[in-house]
Amino acid sequence: xxxxxxxxxxxxxxxxxxxxxxxxxxxxxxxxxxxxxxxxxxxxxxxxxxxxxxxxxxxxxxxxxxxxxxxxxxxxxxxxxxxxxxxxxxxxxxxxxxxxxxxxxxxxxxxxxxxxxxxxxxxxxxxxxxxxxxxxxxxxxxxxxxxxxxxxxxxxxxxxxxxxxxxxxxxxxxxxxxxxxxxxxxxxxxxxxxxxxxxxxxxxxxxxxxxxxxxxxxxxxxxxxxxxxxxxxxxxxxxxxxxxxxxxxxxxxxxxxxxxx
Length: 261
What we know:
The protein is an all-alpha fold. The chain has helices at 6-45, 58-75, 84-91, 97-134, 147-169, 174-200, 231-260. The protein has one domain (6-185, 216-260).
């Protein structure tokens, strides 16, 4: 399952490059070009209301295109599973589950991020001077150097892991099924949290879920700390930021190995 052979990985890399990566990047390139052309036309048509593009500039375009395009790409990463014939052919390819997952992850995550970043950067270098010349002031965010850029990348790493795992777990319409699962998980989690809160802070309620009158200002816990300062909350935030994505990527390998047996 965890075997790694460079020859097999090279073959899987070439296959994914032509069958998955190129179509995704062609579509993304067309969308990026269309977005910048529309932005240019809108600024030329109404330069006075264009304002400064600092808040709606390259980083906003990058974030939207990366999230929407990247999550669609991640959801279709294992598109071979949609049909029994292509599923069997993919599972029969030479390579371990780790090698196949690694190649798919490589294209849908770091390579996709880098490609979209470069496409946005090139489009900005071309269109920002035109906007500045014909449509008023223009602003280009610093791709790779901006703190907000890396925050967007970090968010993508986390969300990507969820949809990447969903593309293996669900054979058909993986993206939609992943979203539905997340909604159901959110509803169940909210219910469990409400029940937990009701049990732990029972003295705050006069009925099943009716708050009792409180004297003075209510303070969480012992009143000496804010909720975000509690170690439980800090651990949850740490786990969500740094442990969720690696855990789901590892789970993706094991999930694929189940189908490969």
